[in-house]
């Protein structure tokens, strides 16, 4: 089961925005602003949320998991800053 998780992430990113830029280790970011998802594959952010970012895509969107909700999805990279 755990072996299929990275493939699911890469598939999600490719289906939304093209080729992913993978990182070796997840990096923790903090939300600067709230973000309300428009599509099902997007991640809701509240100001101050911590997110583990797994991929930064070339169009400025990030892929990660919210530490508050445990949910996984895409969100705009300019809504967060590295911790």
From TrEMBL:
Pfam families: SH3_9 (PF14604). Gene3D superfamilies: SH3 Domains. InterPro entries: Endophilin_SH3RF (IPR050384), SH3-like_dom_sf (IPR036028), SH3_domain (IPR001452). Transmembrane segments: none annotated. Keywords: Repeat, SH3 domain. Residues 24-83 form the SH3 domain. SUPFAM superfamilies: SH3-domain (SSF50044). It comes from the Eukaryota. PANTHER family: CAP, ISOFORM AC (PTHR14167:SF116), SH3 DOMAIN-CONTAINING (PTHR14167). This is SH3 domain-containing protein. It comes from Notodromas monacha. The lineage of its organism: Eukaryota, Metazoa, Ecdysozoa, Arthropoda, Crustacea.
